[in-house]
Amino acid sequence: MPVPRNNRILSRYIPLILWLGFITYASTEGFSAANTSRIIGPIVLWLFPNTSADTMEVIHFTIRKIAHFTEYGILGYLAVRAFRTSPGPNISRYWFLLSLSIVVLYALMDEYHQSFVPSRTASIYDSFIDMTGGLTVILLLRLWYRERQPSSISTI
């Protein structure tokens, strides 16, 4: 039995909307460096008990930047998933540009939002990390979809 069109649309767009909500939540004080260090620090010290304070700072910084990249990589994936299979012909035709636009705009808005949170710092560099994560996944998916398309040149 085919899935009704409205259910297909919801199943594609709800994860994207929920992930945008998570990114917004992650921009609050709860995910500030001071708070994430309380989680990352003990784990690192448990794994490597002799870690110096300077090394801990570098590890914490690196993990936070990897989280930025990954968070927006997931956003890129969910945007492609939603737009590429959209029943709207213009949306599905321009899925690449729409997905990239969502990633870029949300990365910039996210850092702008953080500029109003006292325990957070806004950084254009974080936006670039975010955009790079999203763009990487979008490009990988574009290549993957192209590889899966049947060749238009037939061999005789």
Radius of gyration: 19 Å
Q: Helix/strand-derived class?
A: mainly alpha
- Tell me the helix content: over 70%
* Average pLDDT over all residues: 87
Stretches where pLDDT is under 50 for at least 5 consecutive residues are none
Give the SSE string. HHHHHH
- Provide the number of structural domains: 1
Q: How many beta strands in the DSSP annotation?
A: 0
How far is it from the N-terminal to the C-terminal residue, by CA? Answer: 39 Å
Main β-sheet, in a few words? Answer: none
| β-sheet strand percentage | under 5%
Q: Helix count, per DSSP?
A: 6
Please characterize this protein's 3D structure.
This protein is mainly α. The relative contact order is 0.13. It contains six helices and no strands. It has helices at about 5-25, 35-45, 55-85, 90-95, 95-115, 125-150.
Topology:
Layout: H1 5-26, H2 33-47, H3 53-84, H4 89-93, H5 95-114, H6 124-148
Short note summarizing the structure:
The chain has about 160 residues and is mainly α. The chain contains 6 helices and no strands. The chain has helices at about 5-25, 35-45, 55-85, 90-95, 95-115, 125-150.
Which key terms come to mind for this protein?
156 residues, mainly alpha, 76% helix, 0% strand
